[in-house]
Amino acid sequence: MDSFIEFFTTNYNMITIVILSIFLGIEVISRVPSVLHTPLMSGANAIHGVVIIGAIIVMGEAEPDNYLALILGFLAVILGTLNVVGGFVVTDRMLEMFKKKKK
To answer: Of the chain's two ends, which shows fewer C-beta atoms within 10 Å, N or C?
Structure first.
């Protein structure tokens, strides 16, 4: 319990920023019209390439016996890749809707 309190007091500023960013994200997303939601989300999914690069860096810098960092980095690479691919698939399907149909 003492380690939790110590962690909280040393990282109070970062925890506050994360909590405020969660509330800000909820407010921003809830105000997006439904017509724009899918294009914005597909673009945001493509930005997850940064997550993939960060996860690869974390895995490269991790100690060989630090299994937690390696497992979390591997999961971040897998889930980030799925998110990027999903974003491109959704964007491709949206663009197909606007193409002229051949007769």
So the answer is: C
